[in-house]
Amino acid sequence: xxxxxxxxxxxxxxxxxxxxxxxxxxxxxxxxxxxxxxxxxxxxxxxxxxxxxxxxxxxxxxxxxxxxxxxxxxxxxxxxxxxxxxxxxxxxxxxxxxxxxxxxxxxxxxxxxxxxxxxxxxxxxxxxxxxxxxxxxxxxxxxxxxxxxxxxxxxxxxxxxxxxxxxxxxxxxxxxxxxxxxxxxxxxxxxxxxxxxxxxxxxxxxxxxxxxxxxxxxxxxxxxxxxxxxxxxxxxxxxxxxxxxxxxxxxxxxxxxxxxxxxxxxxxxxxxxxxxxxxxxxxxxxxxxxxxxxxxxxxxxxxxxxxxxxxxxxxxxxxxxxxxxxxxxxxxxxxxxxxxxxxxxxxxx
Length: 349
Known about the structure:
By secondary structure, the chain is mainly β. 3% of the residues lie in helices and 46% in strands. It contains 1 helix and 29 strands. The chain has a 5-stranded mixed β-sheet, with no helix packed on it. It has a 4-stranded antiparallel β-sheet with strand order 3-29-28-27, with no helix packed on it. The radius of gyration is 18 Å and the shape is globular. 49% of the residues are buried. Mean pLDDT is 91; it is low at 1-23.
């Protein structure tokens, strides 16, 4: 791919769409029409909450419950942005401009954290129209790979996924292909887990330190191409990229098992955890967006001590290319569709 790597979902698509992939997620729940052109389990209802956010890449809510969204285009022209959606159905208001591939948003108290190309910035002092200040708290070298999703741990530290800059190379930077964490002021940046080709979506299971991460796996392996993964990531783990891609054997000695295997060439993106907000059919589950498969999967979660297991199954269909997912404080699940610029709201009927 010529030039710098663009948004990680696009990079994975370009690398992975060259070869066909079979589905790993088997349908066990019947999907029916639930509104807004989507299909999902009976007992849910869907509507379009927001329009006009073409190339939507991340979602977050602030302390007042307002929705914020980032957009990241196919090519990085420095014209990406962050928007405020004042209320459901309102026209998004552009607040931050001239960004380079923002893929992570996180509100902590009155500060908005934005991860973009080779950096994390924190914005403070929002007056309803603009932020009073911006400060870069994490800077990374060019070529390290894309900065992806952000999540806040119960300890208060902020965790960030950083992709490898390649499909199968051994990265030169220790920050590449890793999940890192840092204090809210950007200090004490450290690698928590390494050897992950593309850790994209991050979400802590509520009330715990279990961090769920979507992992885009290697491509160009023909019939040996693995499915993407959903996994619990812990401090000190080494996931074996590029030698290990789920094939077993010596190359994967000591590598943890994923919670669930997703579809091949899926460009697994955002992940959110639901714990009953969508009713008993959905239950306690991880909700995972698959960019290239135009669908959202459900992984019912079972915890056995420190280990989590689950099986992926189709949950929501009817999108073009879903990327960010978010559970709002009221329990509504939001799914942003990168291609159409719509944000769908899914709730119990």
